[in-house]
Amino acid sequence: MITIKRIVKDRCSARYTQTNNHQYHHYSLGLEIFIILRVHFQKKFRLVSTPFNNKHIMKHLFLIIVILCSLSGISQPKLKKVKTHYPDGTLKGVYHVQKSNQNIKEGNYKGFYLDRMQMEGPYQNNQRNGKWTFYHWNEQKSCEGEYSNGSMDGIWQFYSEEGQIKTSAYYSNGYRDSIAIYDHNGTFLYTNKYFRYKKEGDRWYYQNGNIESERIPTADTNIYIEKEYFHTGQLHSEIIYKDKNPYTVIHTYNINGNAIDGGNLKEGTGEIIRYYLPESDHHSDTLVIKFIQKATKSHLDGRCFLFHKDGKIASQEFYKNGILIASKGFDSKGKQIFEHKFDGINYPKVLTKIGTIMPLMDIQPRFPTGDNGRLKFLMRCIKYPEFAKSQGISGTLYFSFVVEITGELSDFNILKGVHPTIDNEALHAVKMMPNWEPGEAINEGPARVRFSMPIKFTL
């Protein structure tokens, strides 16, 4: 009977990937179980194969199979095909939903922009499961890999617009565990390792089973203590967080348990120093500084530094009361690669909290048809709200959103609004944008990037 269980499991798992052929699956499932049960009955009761015995067995087995197939049919959701479109009428997505709950996607999904494929892959009970493929604007593969219960899992490959492999990353439960970097010819360069392996509650674990970090709650729900450990189990740092931001540095240690400088941050004011944790086979007392930040009342203030893993400076930023005033970036060889000054007009004045670190980008994310294409898309999508027009309301609002490593957009925020009618109209248009070309961080490969942009409404 173990064989029957295995067949039922195999057929049920295949049901969602071939929903158009579910009648075939039900029939083949019943036929295989019928044959096995018939043989099982004959062996168990030592029945001789006679016309009477065969007829008697088949009569009862037929009833069993009808019941099994009926139950199998009940578990198969009835689906409805859905097509979505952009405001200009071009196709955006094709997928199926459950008729009983049209918020739940099932089966294969295909996403488009200007009739070009952007992504495709299967859903199961509204979660991504199985192989997904994402595409560049020229329809070359951008990346592909497996999802498990909605999270990236296993090996993912990332490609250039010419089809050359750039990065190979391994994910576990949605979190990157290691990454291999290649040059423009596809030649392997180096590997970066990440230690976060699994999460249980408020604890992260290394692959060797030791705790990587943990959050300890306090009586105040806005305050918790975060402890970070080396792979050996030695405590590295203990910091009090308030409103999800570093508030007070308590202790900082090296891998041998000796106290080192972690900064003098106290109640949101002072300096904080964070370090790169060493590789699993590294036991040196010396740690490489990851960043140095200064803060006043939990907002960045003064000169802050971010470093490469080899200790060379990666960026230098200057803040005033939480507002970024200027920044410089350097590659791993020390060459300056950018310098920006921010006046708060072309860039929104957004207060930056201490502990906020954005990756040093080698390639910035972009709209598939460039900045001009983005402006044209938004102009087609946005309609000036009648109420705002009648009341003479105008102004510039600022948005931010995250461009995921697959190019998908998430975590939309209005940084500075104008009026609810204008804000909602602009937010709807921004959420309608297709996948972007994802960004890449120096020495890190594909990276999630928060992107900010203004939208101006004038009468």
Structural overview:
Strands 1, 2, 3, 4, 5, 6, 7, 8, 9, 10 and 11 form an eleven-stranded antiparallel sheet that branches. The termini are far apart. The chain has 459 residues and is of the alpha+beta class. Residues 1-30 have low confidence and may be disordered. It is globular and about 75 Å long. Strand 12 and strand 13 form a beta hairpin. It is 20% helix and 42% strand. It has four domains: 2-75, no CATH class; 134-194, Histone H3 K4-specific methyltransferase SET7/9 N-terminal domain; 198-357, no CATH class; 370-457, Fusion Protein Consisting Of Minor Coat Protein, Glycine Rich Linker, Tola, And A His Tag, Chain: A, Domain 2.
Shape: globular
- State the low-pLDDT regions, or none: 1-30
Query: What's the total helix number?
Result: 6
From the alpha-carbon coordinates, what is the Rg to the nearest angstrom?
A: 28 Å
Helices and strands, with pairings:
Layout: H1 2-15, H2 22-44, H3 51-75, E1 79-85, E2 91-98, E3 105-113, E4 116-124, E5 127-128, E6 130-135, E7 141-148, E8 151-159, E9 165-172, E10 175-182, E11 188-193, E12 198-200, E13 203-205, E14 211-217, E15 223-229, E16 235-242, E17 245-252, E18 270-275, E19 289-296, E20 299-300, E21 302-307, E22 313-320, E23 323-330, E24 336-341, E25 361-363, H4 370-381, H5 386-390, E26 395-403, E27 409-416, H6 420-431, E28 439-441, E29 445-447, E30 449-457
Antiparallel strand pairs: 1-2, 2-3, 3-4, 4-5, 4-6, 6-7, 7-8, 8-9, 9-10, 10-11, 12-13, 13-14, 14-15, 15-16, 16-17, 18-19, 19-20, 19-21, 21-22, 22-23, 23-24, 25-28, 26-27, 26-30, 28-29
Helix pairs in contact: 1-2, 2-3
